[in-house]
User: Fold Ferredoxin from Desulfuromonas acetoxidans.
Amino acid sequence: MSYRILEEDCTACGECEPVCPVDCISAKDNGKRLINEEECIDCGACADACPVDCIYQHAH
Assistant:
């Protein structure tokens, strides 16, 4: 499992990025965030921090 960001719902607020303990979230050119699934440790901190609930757990 890992977490993914539903890009069409992401508001590019950046609330998820600083709470990631392994720093696997980065901003794309459009400001929306992307999770590096290979580095993600599935802790869920990003999903908890997202004010629009666009981060979800994805089965590989």
In short: The two ends are 6 Å apart (CA to CA). Helices lie at 45-49.
